[in-house]
């Protein structure tokens, strides 16, 4: 997913825009009319409203694993590494280095990282940080169905691979991405705040040649989105990326409709210490799910 986003960003590195009409669905077309449209930054600048307001090529809302992976990909891709990027997340840890001690108990929140994701982490320079902390490769997998009478077994050797995946704590993945982005030359600003409002500002129909204007280069390339933050600051961006989780504020402000339902399930998560290394992942499907 992140690779696809980066390829599209690279292809349009000099033509970013925030669409004001339908994206691809009926729900999205309805959403476009729900985003407030205010006067252009050019008009606001004439009235003195844009003093000290920063402009960015990309604003990434959400500095978790997804958002930081995108930021690292932008930093490592030749056609996008020169972009000016804002990362917006209320987590104060983004402004400092997260320390993970070996004696800390394992985090119950983990992810199974596939070879494709490992390749992505290597490409952006984050995998070396993962290897410095706890991780568990597996080269076999056994899956039972709910009847318990049959199972399927997978082996990495069957597809000429060394491993099928790697289980890593989420905090280790996030730490690796954060360490990676802190050591890049990407033009970035991290806002430890939350987005409170988002509005689309249409670009001026006339081209501007005033070299003193901080917005002229941006508005000649399309519409801008203005983001208001909870700390009272605001910024403009040509592309807003909502990577702020299942209850995305960006999605809510954009008016995108979603369909969901509750799962009346509870789970017990625990870490079991083995006397020997285990390289097989086990999974059992019950009538209500895995």
UniProtKB/TrEMBL annotation:
Residue ranges occupied by any FAD-binding domain in the UniProt entry: 56-265
InterPro entries xref list: FAD-bd (IPR002938), FAD/NAD-bd_sf (IPR036188), UbiH/COQ6_monooxygenase (IPR051205)
GO CC term (a single one): mitochondrion
GO molecular function: FAD binding
Biological processes annotated in GO: carotene biosynthetic process; xanthophyll biosynthetic process
Protein name, entry field: FAD/NAD(P)-binding oxidoreductase family protein
């Amino acid at each position: 997913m992140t690779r696809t986003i980066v390829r599209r960003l690279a292809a349009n590195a000099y033509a970013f825009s925030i669409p004001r009409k339908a994206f691809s669905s009926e729900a999205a077309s309805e959403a476009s009319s729900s985003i407030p449209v205010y006067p252009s930054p050019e008009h606001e600048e004439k009235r003195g409203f844009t003093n000290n307001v920063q402009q960015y090529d990309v604003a990434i809302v959400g500095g978790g694993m997804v958002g930081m992976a995108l930021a690292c990909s932008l930093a490592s891709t030749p056609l996008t590494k020169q972009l000016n990027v804002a990362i917006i997340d209320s987590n104060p840890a983004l402004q400092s280095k997260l320390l993970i001690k070996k004696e800390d108990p394992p985090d119950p929140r983990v992810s199974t990282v596939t070879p494709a994701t490992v390749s992505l982490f290597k490409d952006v320079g984050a995998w070396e940080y993962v290897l410095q902390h706890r991780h568990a490769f597996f080269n076999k997998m056994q899956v039972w169905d709910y009847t318990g009478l049959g199972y399927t077994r997978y082996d990495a050797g069957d597809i000429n691979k060394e491993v099928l995946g790697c289980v890593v704590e989420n905090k280790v993945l996030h730490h690796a991405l954060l360490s990676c982005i802190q050591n890049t030359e990407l033009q970035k600003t991290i806002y430890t705040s939350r987005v409170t409002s988002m509005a689309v500002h249409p670009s001026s129909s006339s081209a501007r040649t005033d070299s003193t204007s901080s917005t002229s280069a941006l508005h000649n390339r399309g519409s801008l989105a203005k983001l208001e933050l909870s700390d009272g600051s605001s910024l403009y961006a040509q592309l807003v990326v909502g990577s702020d989780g299942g209850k995305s504020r960006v999605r809510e402000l954009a008016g995108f409709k979603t369909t969901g339902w509750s799962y009346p399930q509870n789970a017990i998560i625990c870490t079991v210490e083995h006397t020997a290394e285990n390289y097989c992942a086990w999974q059992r499907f019950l009538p209500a799910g895995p």
